[in-house]
Amino acid sequence: NILQRNQAAGVAFPNPAPPGSTEGPGSDILTNLGTAPLTVSALTFSSNNFVSDAATTTCKASTVLAPGANCVLGFDFTPQAVGGSINGTLTVTDNSGNVAGSTQQGSLFGQALYTPVVTVTSVPNIALAQTLTVTVTVAAAGGNPVPTGTIQLFAGGAIQGPTALVNGSVTFQV
Questions:
Q1: Is the dihedral of CA 63, 65, 66, 70 positive or negative?
Q2: Looking at the predicted structure, is the pLDDT value of residue 142 above 70?
Q3: Number of C-alpha atoms within 13 angstroms, CB side, residue 112?
Q4: Interatomic CA distance for residues 154 and 120, integer angstroms
């Protein structure tokens, strides 16, 4: 009983996800290349940023694979942290090579989005018919990286923008 993983280089989730969301599922296929049954005894994720996807997973603890048979490991990326690369490992414990407690590991990669902090400031106490200056500043929690993108301002039924952020900030005249 020899276990082969289909995704030898690991599985990367291509879309960045905000903390508390779910991206996936990703998957890997385990195949028994041996001549004896292979028993999966445990599936363990190294991080709570990756979890088993019940809808796609056919490999579970106690799964027995006949020679030549395979099963699917389905998993989701569920970032708990704010922003940046998140790596994890899925460890499969089985009896590969007829050795109880053998382990194989697969690498998992995801990208968590930064949670923005938005601040809107304006000049107080302006007179009727005066121009109001509104500055919108967007910052990532923790300060890095400087956000990019565009902002639209909706004022009195009118839309201003979209206007590109410059160093995380944009100013409108209303």
A1: positive
A2: no
A3: 22
A4: 13
Instruction: Extract the tokens encoding 133.
Output: 């200056």
Tell me if 165 sits within 8 A of 138, measured CB to CB.
Answer: yes
Please calculate the CA angle 64-67-71 and round it to the nearest 5 degrees: 50
Question: What are the distances in angstroms from CA 83 to CA 43, 108, 148?
Answer: 27, 16, 14
Single pTM value for the model: 0.68
Angle at 173 between CA 171 and CA 174, to 5 degrees: 130
For 101-126, the pLDDT digits (tens) are 999 888 999 988 877 777 888 777 77
| Cα 107 from Cα 110, distance rounded (Å) | 10
What DSSP line would sit under the chain, residue for residue? --EEES-TT-EE--S-B-TT--EEEEEEEEEE-SSS-EEEEEEEESSTTEEE-TTT----TT-EEPTT-EEEEEEEE---SSSEEEEEEEEEEE-GGG-TTEEEEEEEEEEEPPPEEEEEEE-SSPPTTPPPEEEEEEEETTS-SPP-SEEEEEETTEEEEEEE-BTTEEEEE-
